[in-house]
Amino acid sequence: MGNVSENKEVMIQLSGVKKKYRLGQIGGGTLQADLQSWWARIHGKEDPNSKIGADQRSNGETFMALNGIDLTIYKGEAVGIIGSNGAGKSTLLKLLSRVTAPTEGEIDIYGRIASMLEVGTGFSPEMTGRENVYMNGTILGMTKAEIDAKMEDIIEFSEVREFIDTPVKRYSSGMYVKLAFSVATHLDSEIMIMDEVLAVGDMAFQKKCLDKMREAAKKEGRTVLYVSHNMNTIRQLCDRCIVLDKGKVIFEGDVEKGIVMYMNNSINLVTQKVYDNYERMRFIQRDDVRIISAEYIGKDNCIFENDENIKLRLKWKYNRNTENMSMRFVVESLDNSKVCASFCYHKFSGVENQVMEADFEYEINNLAPGNYQSFYVFFESNKLGASKELDWVPGLCFTLEKKEEGRLPWRTQAWGYYEMNPPKVVIR
Amino acid sequence: MNNEATVQKSTPYHIHISSNHKWFDLKLKEVFRYRDLIWLFTKRSFVVRYKQTILGPAWLFLNPFITSIIYTIVFGKVAGIGTEGIPKILFYMCSNAIWVYFSTCVTQNATTFTANANVFGKVYFPRLTTPISNVLSAIIQFGVQMSLVLAFLCFYLIKGEVHPNWWACLLMPIVLIHLGLLGLGVGIIVSSMTTKYRDLSILVGFGVQLWMYATPIVYPLSQLKEGPFRHLMLINPVTAPVEIFRYALLGQGTIDVPFTIVSWMITLLVTLFGIIIFNKVERTFMDTV
User: What residues in A contact B39, CB-CB < 8 Å?
Assistant: First the structure.
C-alpha cells in the first residue's frame, strides 16, 4: 500500500480489524460463564473462561471471523472480494455496512454507503411496489424528497411499471428482485457494497445490473465492493481483487492473479475421500445407492502429467435392489464452470446391502492444463430415456500439467478448457 | 497507514467505526436525519395490520370498547369498585385508553431487536427509529380511541354527569410525551436485555399485566386508604400521568406535584439509560440474537 499515487482519494480504510464470534449455542451455560468472567474481572483475577493461547483463530468457544485486516480502498475502484466459504468475506461486508461492530480495530469510511447484503430489505409483502420503494429507499438512507425525484427512473429501470401499484406479495420473485435492485442502484451513495445479489434475476437483468455498477464506478466515480463466487462477474466488473483466507487478506491486486491465487488455495489435494458423513444435496431424494469412498489408484498426489490417465476406484453400497445404474464423471473448473463429463455405459446392478467396488480409467489429455474439481454421479435410467440421480458427491480434485518443449502457459480465459489435438500439417 | 496525505480532508459523510464504544453518544442527530423513515415505519404498522381484514380500522374502536365493557362488568358490577360518581363505562374507557397506550409502547418496543432481526441484520439505519415509530403509532392509535372516548364524554357532559377540568386538558400532550418516553425506555431496556437471554421477553407480557394492577387503572387512586401500598403506587411512575389524565377529562383524581416530579425524574433516567444500553447492544446484537 506504500506505492499509492497522490491523486487517489481514500474512501475506506481499515486498520487492524478483527471480529470475534462465539461458537455454539447461547443459553444458561453462557450466563454462568458470563457471570464467572464478570466476577473475575471485578476482582482483578484471570478470567477462568479465557483459553490459553487465545490468539488462535478458533479456540473452542470463540472464532475469529476476521483476524487483523488492513485495507485501503480508493475512490472509483471496483474491488472484488473472493475467498472460500468461511474466509470472512461476508463478515467484512457486514462490518462495512455497520450491521455489526468490530471486536478490535478501526474503520474509517469517507462517504455514504449503499449496502446490499440482501435485495429488498424491509419490503413488506402487503404494501404496493411504490410504497415499498419508499420504504426500502428510506431504510437505505434516502429522504422522501430524494425518492420522489428519482421515482420515475427507479420504475423505469425496474421494468415493473405495470405492477407498481400492486402489493408485492403478488410479484414473481424476479420482479421483486428487479424492483429492489433498482432502488439500490439509484441511491445517492459514494460507495456500493454488494454481496452476490446478482445471482438472482434473469440473464438480461443481470447484465443490466453489472453494466449499471460498472458505469457507477467508471463514470460517476463511485466505489464498488463486490463479493461473489462467480469469477466471471468478478472479471467483468472489478479492477482490483482482494483474496481472503481464514480471516486474513492473503492477496490484493490484479484480478487475474487474485483468482489464480484463490483457486490454488482452494484446491484440495487429497487422493482419497470417504463419504460416510457427507450430507447429500437436497435433490438426492432416494438413498438406493450410497457412494462409500473414492481414491486415485497408485498415486500419492493429485498431479497428473502429460498423457497420464486418471485411475479412480469407487466403492458403493446398494441399499435397495437396483438395476440399470450408470455412472457419470463431471469435471468442473475451480470457479464452478462446467468443463466436461464422461458417461460410463456399463450398467451396474446389485441387491440390497451388497457392496461393490470398481475401477474407472479416464483419459484427460484433451483437457487444458490447470486445476479441476470433479463430481461422481450415480444415476438410473429407464427405457424411456429419463434418468434419475441416485447419488451425487463432490469427488477428488486434480491438477493437469503438460510439460512439453516450447509449450506456452495455457490461458483458460482466452482458450477455454478443452485442448484439441494438434493439427496434422502437410506442407505443399 | 502512512499515507495520510491522501485521506480526504473533509466529507460530510465521514463515518468512524471503532471497537471502542462511546457510551454517551446518543446519536440523536442521525435519528433526526432519518425522520422520513420513522414516519414510514409508523405508516406501515397501520397499513399492514388492517390489510385484508373485513372490519379494517374499525378494530381500533372495537377492541378497547369491548375491553371497557368487560371492565365495567367485572370491576364495576361484580367487584363493585366505586368510580367516584363518574359513569363507569366512561371511567373504564378513559383508563383503558391511556393504559393501552402505555402498554403498547412497552410491549412493542420490548421486541425491537428480535422482531426486526432480519432487517437489522442486512442494513444499517439508526435503530432508535424503530422504537420511536412504535411510540408514534401508539399515539395515533390512542388518538383514534380517544375519538370514541370523546363521543361518550360529550354524551355524559350533556347529561351533566361529568365535569372536566378544561385547563388541565392543556397538559395532555405532556402526559402523552411522559408515558411515551417511559414506555420507550422500559421497552428498549427489555429488548436490549433479551438479545442474549430470552427469559425477559416471556416475562414482559405478564409483567405489564401485573403493572396494570399496580397502577390505578381499573380503580381510582382515591379508593386506596393512606398507607404503604398507596405510597408504593405513587412511586410507580405511571400513576402520576394517569391521574393527571383523568383529572383533566373526568374531573376526578388529583395532580400531586411532588410525585409528578419524581415520576418525571424516573422517566428521564429510564429513557436515558435505555437509549445508552440500546445503542451499546445495537452494535453487536446481530451476533447473539
Answer: 144
Please give the residue of chain B at the shortest CA–CA distance from A189: B13
pTM of structure: 0.74
Complex prediction ipTM: 0.78
Q: Which of B15, B17, B123 sits opposite A115 (nearest CB)?
A: B123
| Rounded Cα gap, residues A355 and A316, in angstroms | 6
Query: Among the residues of B160-237, which ranges form H helices?
Result: 172-193, 199-213, 228-235
CB A154 within 8 A of CB A183: yes
Cβ–Cβ of A109/B17 closer than 8 Å? yes
Section B48-69 average pLDDT = 80
Contact list, B44 vs chain A (CB under 8 Å): 124, 127, 131, 135
Percent of chain A's residues with pLDDT above 70: 89
Q: Do A117 and B19 touch (CB under 8 A)?
A: no
